[in-house]
Structures are given as C-alpha cells and as structure tokens.
Amino acid sequence: MSSDPHRPPLDPRMPPEQGGMPSQQQPSQPPTKGIDAAGMALFVVALVLMVIVGVVGLGVVFYLNREDPTEPTEKAAQGRAGPPNEVNKPPSLPDWLPERKWPKNPPASPKTKEERVLMANWLYGYYVPIPKGCPTLKPRPSVAEYKEKARGLVDCLYDSWAPLFFDAGKDFNKPEVKFFDKDVKSSCRRRILKSTLYYCIAETSIYVSDLAIRIASQDKHLPYADIFRMFIFHVQQWAGFQDAVISRGKKDDETFHRLLLQTPCIQARQMLMADSMNMKYEEHAAFVMRLFRSKKKRQGSPASAVYWGTRGFYAERIGDCNTWTAPSDLVE
C-alpha cells in the first residue's frame, strides 16, 4: 500500500505511473534522473500547497467561530451557575421574607457593542454568588475592628465572585481597600474628602475614611452595607459596565440611574445570603428605608431605588437585576 495518505489507493490493474502497484519485474530501462527530480519537485510543491491550504482553512474556521467578548456565551451563561439543580440551586428564602412574584425583564435587543455589554452581559446567566466564610460582622464596631472586618469582607466577596469571571475566561482582581483620615489625592479625583467612602475606577480601589467608618459604626443594623455596595461597583467595572456607559457617550440621568440602580439589587441578594450577615427582618427593613431616604439624584428616585433593592432580595440570577431592559418608569 502507498504510504502517502493524500494519494488514492494503488490499483494493481493500473500501471505505476497512473496509481497502480509497482511491477515485480525490473523495467527494461530505468527512469532517468531528470524525471525523478521533476517528480520530486512536483511532490514538494504539492505538499507545500496542501500545508498552506490547510493552515488558511484552519484560520478561516477559527475566525468564523471566534467569540465576541461582549456576547454572553453558552459557557458563560451556564458555567458554575448552570441550570438549577440540587448542587447549585440557591437556598430557600428565609421565612420572614414575604412571598412575592416579580415580572420578568423584557428581552434584550442590543444594537451596538456597548448595548450588548449592558443589556446582555455575560454575567446575567449566573446565579448571584453567595458569600461564604466571611468574617462575623457585629454591629457598632470600633474603627480598628471595622478596618479588620472590612478587609476580610472584601477577601470573602472576591472569593465569591472570582469563580464566575474565571469560569467565563475573564480577568478579575481583588480591589485594594485604602483607609485614610484626611483628604487625599487619587487617580480618579483631585481630592477625596475625609468624609467619603469611594470606589476609584482607575485604581480599582475602595477608599474608606475614618469619619465614614465612625458614621457607619452608628448603624446598629448594617454597618458594613457600603462595603458590599463598593464591591458591586468593582464587579460592574470588571464586567465592562462603566466602560460601556462611557463609550456609549450618553450622560443623561436615566443612563446613570440604570447603572447605579443595579447595585442595590445585587447588593441586597448578597447581604441576604451571606452567612456572616445573619440578616433578619429588621436589617431588611433598615436597608429598604436607607434606599427610600437616598437623596442622590444620580442614583435614581427613592421609589426606583426601593423597587430594585427589594427586588434584589428575590433575585436568583444576576440577570434578575438587569436594569438596562427595564421600562423607563422603573429607573426614574
């Protein structure tokens, strides 16, 4: 048999020069060296052409099947989240939380790359991750205790989110927590006031002032709620939301409302499921009241904030907090 896989099988009925079996008899005249050289040259040329065609063909296949990083892939949409089953299905809601049905979000219909990031982000297919093994968060902590627990909480939240990013083949880092007791400069603002708790996108860092800690420590229900909120900003940044908003070019209030109202929705779910929070109805009510009293225009109206924050307690998947396909009256 021929050892060349690219040639047809040898036919004993055909002469060797047409693909037949070599004759057992010696030829009356041996072929000339010129013919051998020409044949070898043709063979080499054919082999080179076949390799080139094969490489080009593989390149075309990979190009046509390339993955758009802004598209929610099947792997990213399922991954660790997957279809609900006994392994990854979220735990039941606590008995104290009233039963409530929420309307499904309208389907996404993105028309641009930026809209795909916002409306059909790859994160939406995952369950909201459940923080486990976080430090015990007791009310009214001292400044020193708050700093220690805040660092531990950021570590814990990172451990809950990182598997989603890595499962989808995305990068994700842990934000640095920077404590300060006087006005400081950062890459995001010329000056960060000493009363501020602030997430710096350029540094992917969380700034927490001592004064902000003392104010938060007076909250007997949710002194660490803002650390959860800052971390959700960090998640949004790495998932491309802030960059998509900037690239989109729209700086109207509704755009910022959709971005910032997504935060309390995911935040509520994570605080509810975090074992270290031990959230009860009192903490739930305090969180909703905090949203109702919010007077920051860019973060939406109190009614919209309460809607998305309350909805978050019932949100199983991150896509349940998709504010980008919601009607305008829900993101006022």
How far apart, in Å, are the first and last alpha carbons?
77 Å
- Unreliable parts: 1-35, 58-87
Helix content: 40-55%
Overall pLDDT score:
79
Features of this protein?
single chain; 332 residues; mainly alpha; three-stranded mixed β-sheet; 10 helices; globular; disordered N terminus
3D structure, described in words:
Mean pLDDT is 79; it is low at 1-35 and 58-87. The protein has a domain at 112-330. It has a three-stranded mixed sheet with strand order 1-3-2. The longest helix has 32 residues, at 33-64. It is mainly alpha-helical and 332 residues long. The protein is built from ten helices and three strands, in the order ααααβββαααααα. Helix 8 (253-273) packs parallel to helix 10.
Offer a quick outline of the entry.
This protein is mostly helical.
What topology does this entry show?
Layout: H1 33-64, H2 74-77, H3 113-119, H4 143-167, E1 176-180, E2 197-200, E3 205-209, H5 210-217, H6 225-238, H7 241-248, H8 253-273, H9 281-292, H10 302-314
Parallel strand pairs: 1-3
Antiparallel strand pairs: 2-3
Helix pairs in contact: 3-7, 4-6, 6-8, 8-10, 9-10
